[in-house]
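Slide 14.
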Amino acid sequence: MHRHFLAILFVAFAGLTACSPGFNWRDVPLPPANGSGSPMLMALLPCKPDRASRSISFEGGALDVQMAGCTAQGVTFTLARADVADPARRSLIMQQWQASTRAQVQAGSVSEIPFALRSSSGPLPLARMRMAGHAADGGALIVNVVWFAHGGAVFQAAIYEPAGTPLAPDAVQSFFSGLYLP
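Slide 15: predicted structure.
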C-alpha cells in the first residue's frame, strides 16, 4: 500500500513538473522575411520568444537571418532562418552555418541522431546533431541542433544546455518533434 501511494505521488509530481511555468510550451511561427515565397516554419517553444533579425556574412555575401529564441530553466531554445533565393547556394550556406556553429561552441564530440521533420508533404529525413562543447564563458555546453534547407530557405533549430542544467530528454523531444513545415 505504501509503495503504491509513493508511486502515485511520484507520477503526480512528475506531471506537475512537466507542466511547470518553467516550460510553458507554445506554437511559434518563424515566417519568411518580407513576405517572400519561402516556407514558414512552425515550432514548439517552452517560453515566449524574443525575435531579432541580423545580417550574417556567408561566403558569397551577407544574408538577413530571422531569429526567435527564449531561455527556460537556464536552457536556451533557438530558431533561425535565412531566405536564400539561389538554390545552388543553399547547400553551401548550410555547410558554412554548421561549421560556424561547431567552431563557436568549440565542439569536441559530435554524434548524429536520426530525425524526421514533419511537413505537410510528408516527413523529411534529417540528422540532429548533439555536440559537446563550450559556452562563451568557457563552461561546458551541450548543443542539440538541426539544420535543413526547404523551399527558398535554410533553417537552424537548436537547444543550448549549459553544464549543471540538465534538460529532461522529453523536453528535447518536445522541441524537435514540434518543428513543422505547413
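Speaker note: The chain has one domain: 25-181.
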